[in-house]
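hi support,

uploading two proteins for the ticket. first:
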Amino acid sequence: MYSMARASSAELADSGGSRALGQLVEVQPLAGRGEVSNCASGGKARGGAHNRADRESVGITYKQVANLREASLMAERIGLPLNRFITIDWELGGIPLAGMAKATGRITNLLTEWLRRQGYRTAWIRVHENAGSVGGHCHMLVHVPPTCVAKLVAAQKRWLRSITGGPYLRRAIKSVPIGGLLGLETSNHARYRANLERTVAYLCKGALQPSAAGWRQPGGRVIGKRCGTSQNIGAKARSMQ
């Protein structure tokens, strides 16, 4: 069964503007730290033909959608709720489509290491897209402790400059808390969970199968890994629970 929910502009954001906001979203309820795991719901953790750096895709599969959703729930179970929605406009930053996946990997590593130095673990899911007027970009849902958010904003700009080799451009990174409020995952869990489900559905809007997500929008051509999760919430970690 699918439940229907309406997303507001305060709850979801995209660097490409508000063209997708206010639409109905179908949300399907689902019963150590590392860099990336396969987005498929089963099989090897990494490597193989499906993980080639030059692999091309035009959308995410039903299994990948299920994996992203299950990973988002796993994050909360291990005490690392995904509470921050980050969009990186790589095309605006001058990164070509063929280099987008590598650039996202670099910024994910920088974020993970930055939090580790401050004594925190993290978890994340991410999806690459290349559609509409935005071009190549990445959506991420990440666990960031509320006390780290203020410093994170400045750090993200530094990381982007180091990766692109140019100055930070306005709107290259958009970073907002889930539901529009810091700490919502503890202050109002029901509201947090509803907004998390909506945001995950938004990340999955480029699904190839109509039944996989109600929010449909072409994901566009992507080179390299289209989507993924941190190892601590990936398929292998979930199978060991």
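and the second one:
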Amino acid sequence: MGTTSTDRIEKQIQINAPLTRVWHALTDHKEFSAWFGVDLQMPFAVGNPTRGRITHRGYEHVVMQVVAQTIQPQRYFSFTWHPYAVDPRIDYTAEPPTLVEFRLEPAAGGTLLRVTESGFDSIPAARRDEAFRMNENGWAAQLQRIDRYATRA
């Protein structure tokens, strides 16, 4: 399913859906919201933040913000964010964000989706291990969610 180091998480999944379907699930903010468990309010646009409240039970107090970095249609989408930024008493904006990258390739019977999140070594030491652990588990679950979402539509 994936590999890791201390600075990056790498996961992949083959989805039994056309590349265009997976691409739209990733890059349309409403579709992304549906499978990811967030209510993003604005479309993804390079350089612009989009934010929304997390809809997973127990995390409804969290507002997720991402800033799209690169959009190469049907191939590559990336954004930055502050990983596992869940404590409403902490201002995470002074921390360096991590980079989340999605790479898509046609594959037999569907689409190969690779996700990489890098930059954990730059997160303050006091929360680095927990952010890494939570996102390592989180990406494994999110790949299953996008697989279910893209193949049912």
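thanks. also noticed: The chain is about 30% helix and 35% strand.
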